[in-house]
Amino acid sequence: MSEEIIPDVPVTSDVLENEEPVVNYSAMSLAELADMFQKLAISEDRMKRSKEAEAIKSAFYKRLLKERAEAGSTAAVQEPGSAEEDPAVEAEISQAPQPETEEAVSENPFDEIERGFKALYNAYRKEKAEYNRQLEKEREHNLELKEAVIADLKALVEKQEDVNATFPAFREIQNRWRAIGPVPVQNYRNLNDTYQLYVEQFYDMVKINRELRDLDFKKNLEAKEKFCEAAEKLAEKENVVDAFKELQKLHEQWKEYGPVAKQFREDIWNRFKAATAVINKKYQAYFEGQKEQYAENLAAKTLLCEKVEAIAEKEIKSSGEWNDCTKEIEEIQKQWKGIGYASKKENQRIYERFRAACDKFFDRKREFYSAYKDEMNDNLQKKIALCEAAEALKTSTAWKKTTDQLINLQKQWKEIGAVPRKKSEALWKRFRAACDEFFNERDKQAKPENDYYGNLKAKKHLIEEINAYVLADDDDVNAEAAQEFSDRWQSIGFVPFKEKDKIADAYKEAMQAKFPEISRRPRGKAPKNEKERLVQKYLKKEQDIVTYENNIGFFAASKNSEPLIRQMQERIDKAKEELKELELQIRALDSAEEKE
């Protein structure tokens, strides 16, 4: 009866590696990765941790490449080769670049970091290559030793001498076989099968003394009973993967021992096979459950990828929207960390998809804020120019003209977008101070006909009249009253500058409260026809052009005024183009009227 057991679930590197703890190297800094690699390189089991070394190396160069890009460095990053290369590359390793002398140290910090890590890695790589070469050499040597043992065993079987002479030699051959270490994997099965064949031939063909044979069977039975006990204990072990690994070792040891007495052969084998079947079944069930869990994790991670990809493609226009989306992405990243691994085949692929979507979002965010910063700096220059223009006008005594100019500057200030927060308040205070200085002086120098405080008093009295007005049943009467109030308001002159916004808001509230329907009607006289509407629009554009040209005139005397002058010129050019278009439309209407 054959005693070789083929596990229900084969041992593969993919299966076992799924159970190894995964370190998040991508979250570590260059210094942390270099320090971790240095500790690994001096550990006692460093030669068995080559996969960990390669993972650290890969994470180090990905981090180095990213930080170089963020720092604006154009130096290329070249990763050293794998520490698992064939021993044949030993000569190439020995010729790897060595750290340069202190006199040749680069001024680029990334070059120094890379040089230090490369020196560590090359030293480990060289040691690993030598270790692999020695290991392979030992296995080849073991192969030669075991082939020699088989040759001796074959010769012993063929001699068929007296048992008293052959049995001690057979025992010595068995001890020699067990003492020899592992051989190359590709030679193991054929070598072991050949050895077992000659062992069985020895027991079957050589007529040994029954007492010695029974003693040998007894020793083999005792050894195999211990293997059965060990396998049965493994069946109770909670860690199924560890139990399965240890079971494989028991199978290898089982094969090293010869047969037992015929009456015990089937029972001892069935006992060992039964314990093996329990472990195999639990192992298979465990990985079936793992497959289901991996599939669920993959589905959950795929959904998160789709969410991030949708956000990364979303059209975002404001800083507030970017902040909201960033919080949403960060929450999704937290959810991602709470989900377990997918299968090894899918885990890296889904992670790269998720990472790519996150990177796309944050790259777009970085571009937005870069452009936003440029726009704010441009706005800053425009507002500085407005401050200088206001400061140039603050001592003017041309009260009417300067008042119009400063009011126009204030309108332009409101049209300009945001500036850097640190400078916003100081800049506004500077602009407001220049305006206040002029208007305060203007109010002090006011002539009787420009009695600003008298005008303020008159407007307050008019607001009281509006609030006290009793609405008539006739809408036309109310409309006439509202128009009268409006005309009187317009006829009253300027009020003190610091009071103008407050009194204007009070008037607007009073009119809207008393005449809500009338207040919503468009102001001014509506054009009678399309031609009149175009003419009004044409005259308004001409007035705008005159205002823009005047602005360029007093901006020219100010520093940092280039952005504003450029803006005014763009408005002038656009308005002139619109004038041409309006003129063509008006002429077309004139021609149509003449034909009628």
UniProtKB/TrEMBL annotation:
Signal peptide: none annotated. InterPro entries: DUF349. Residues 121-163, 531-595 form a coiled coil. It comes from Candidatus Cryptobacteroides excrementipullorum. Transmembrane segments: none annotated. This is DUF349 domain-containing protein. Residues 72-109 are annotated as: Disordered. Residues 100-109 have a biased composition (Acidic residues). Keywords: Coiled coil. The keyword Coiled coil applies. It holds the Pfam family DUF349. The lineage of its organism: Bacteria, Pseudomonadati, Bacteroidota, Bacteroidia, Bacteroidales.
